Amino acid sequence: MTWETDPTHGQGPALNGITTSEPAKANVPQAESPEPPGLWLTGIGTQYPPYLSTIDKFETYVKRFYDSDNQGIKKLLEISRNTGIETRSTIRSFESGLGSNRRTPSDVSEQDALFRKAGVDLTVQACRKALREWGGSFDEITHTVGVTCTNTGNPGYDLLVAQKLQLRHDLDRTLLHGVGCAGGLAALRAAAQLACGASLRRRPARILVHALRENELSAKDFDWALHPGGLSILEGAQRSMHLSKDQLRASYEIYRTHGNSSSPTVLRVLDKLRKMGDGRENIVAAAFGPGLAIEMAMLKRCRIPQAEV
Q: Which of the residues are catalytic?
C-alpha cells in the first residue's frame, strides 16, 4: 500500500502501500497548534499464491501424513468442511508441491527457506502493484512497515523485500510481530504515525503501507471491511450492528474464496471492496488479533472527477 501526507492541508489520512508526507512550507507560530497533516492512500496491491486448494484436496493431503481415524484429525476435517470456505490459496500444489513425494512433513528449516523465497517474492509482487498505482519513483520511498505471522527469523523478511525492490539504503524499516490477524491495520496505524511524525519535523515521508479518519456517522452509512476470521464473526457483526450483507460484501467474498490469511487479509478485503463498484463514501476497516486486540480505521473514498481521469 502507499501513503501520501501533506502537512499543509487538514485532510483525512491516507492508506495503503505508499504514504507520502510533504514537509510544511511555512513556520507555525508557537502560540498556535499546527493543523494535522493530510494523509492519502495512494496505492493498493495484493498478491495471492498461485494455487487454489479445495476441501477435498486438503483432506487427501492430511490423510497422507496423519491417521484419519484419530479423533483430533477427524475434528479438524469436520471444522474444515463446516467453515463455508470453498477454496484456499497455497504456495505449492498438494499434488506436486512440498511433501507430496514423501511420508513425512517438511521441517522448520525447509519451511523457513520456502518463506524467504516464495513469501518474499509474493510480497514484492504486491508492493510493485501498489507502487505502480502510486506512480512515483521507488527511490522516493523513505519508510517501510511490514508485518507477518508466518516467520520470526532474523534478519526480518522486510529487509529481503527492500533489497529485491532496490529501495534506498537509508530506508527506515519497521517490522511488527505478535499482532496476529490485526496486523494489517496495525501496520497502517504505524505508517500513519511515522508519516505524521515526519511532517511535524518538516521532513517528507513516503511509506510503503495506511491511516484513518473519523466521522460522526451511523454504522449504516459505511461499507465495512471486516477481517473475515470466521463465518460466525461476519454473521455476528452483521447481526449485532444491524448491517446488510451488501455492507460486508467484500469480507464475505474474500472469506468464501480464500478464507482467513491472517495479517494481510483485511488489506485484501479493502482491495476487493474498491473493485466492487462505487459503494458508500465512508468505510470502516476492522481486524482482530490475539488478546483480544482490535485495530480499526475509518476511511473515506477519494473520488476523482471524471473530467480529470
A: 181
